[in-house]
Amino acid sequence: MQRMNQWLVRVLVGTCVALALSFVAGGTVSAHSRLKSSSPADGSHLTSAPTTVSAVYGEDTSLTGSKFDLYYAKTSGDAPTLVAGGKVAVNDRTQMRVDLPAGSGDGIYTVKWHTLTEDDNGQADGSFSFTVGAPPAGSTGNNSGTSAMSKGDSTSNSGSMSNSGSALPQTGNPATGLLWLAWAGLLVLGSGLAVRRRSA
Length: 200
Known about the structure:
alpha+beta; Immunoglobulin-like; six-stranded mixed beta sheet; 2 helices; 30% strand
């Protein structure tokens, strides 16, 4: 009986270690470089066009596999036109920026971004916009600053660009909750075995 209890305890410890390693690995695999902030902020109304547009992301991004494209439209009814392509900062790969073309005037500017994390090939997509000139009638927005708001932020491991239409990205790994439940169950089982062993 004592040997059986010892065997069960060893199995329990081994299972707990395996679950802990799976939890850590799962957190790493599910990582994506999502937008943390942008300048100008999403939805900002500026009186004059900035010289550069920049953004900060949660992880280092690929220098060659990430995109930061700036689109311009005179009014909300016009089709956006690609006017400049940005790049990842070599010295800090969590940042991307794009310079506005000379003579950029009033209108709606939208950045569509795509990030690729090289450690796990995780990908994320999204966009943010700001307006230069008088804000549209009846609109309310920020005047300046940075924002973590991102339109259509989505993630993928397949390499395809996607747009979910959600205002904010979902974070975390769906399997994490199941791992925690399994962990709690094993702890309860271990406590029961310990009590039974003491009683014996």
